[in-house]
Amino acid sequence: MSEQESPKQQNLKTSERLVWVGFMLFFVVILAIYIARGNGLEQDLSEANRDLLQAQMQLQQYTRHEVPRPVVLGLTNAHLQDLQRRGMVRPDERLANDLMQQTDLIPHQASEGESYEFREDGIHVLNHQWVLANFEGDSAHGQLLLAYEVVHGNVVWEVLESTLDRF
User: Fold this and answer.
1) What pairing do the DSSP bridges indicate for beta strands 140-151 and 117-125?
2) Residues facing residue 51 across a β-bridge
3) What letter does residue 65 receive in the DSSP assignment?
4) Which residues pair with 130 in a beta bridge?
């Protein structure tokens, strides 16, 4: 019996070996495909990164001179402290309130029976030297650019420029 089983066992061992070799070849081919795909993806990624870098460099060239810096409006902390040392408490509010009472600074003559007044929401402190103020009456509105200086807590105003638009 051992002699008869021997050729069968050999055929079985050979067929098992062939199945295992085929199975291993299948896995080697699949592994080679994935490795080739991985290399291709790495190359694609490297190329995409190069293209992106080139596009960023071109964008920087185009926008280098065209992108303005943001303009800072209002009083800085240093300016606030300086105005407080000069005797002004809450400078933004105080400047607006003082200007609201100074309608004589408006250099335009109103129509008969009309007067110009500053708009409370139209007073903008631009910086530690200038204020832009909107004023209006029944038939016109305008703007003033004013310079100011704080002396011992009091505000001294100077009209630099004005515009008037009639309706």
Assistant:
1) unpaired
2) none
3) T
4) 147
Q: What is the pLDDT of residues 118-131, one digit of tens each?
A: 999 999 999 999 99
**What is the value of pTM for the model shown?**
0.57
Question: DSSP letter at 103?
Answer: G
Classify residue 93 by burial, with Cβ atoms within 10 Å: 0-12, 13-18, 19+.
exposed
Contact (Cβ atoms closer than 8 angstroms) between residue 143 and residue 135: yes
Give the C-alpha separation, 41 to 39, whole Å.
5
Task: Quote the tokens at residue 75.
Answer: 């009083």
Which residues make beta-bridge pairs with 146?
A: 131, 159
pLDDT tens per residue, range 95-110 = 999 999 999 999 998 8
Q: Determine the Cα–Cα distance for residues 71 and 75; give it in Å rounded to an integer.
A: 12
Phi-psi region of 128 (alpha: psi -120 to 50; beta: other; left: phi over 0): alpha
Q: Helices 91-100 & 77-85, crossing angle to 10 degrees?
A: 70
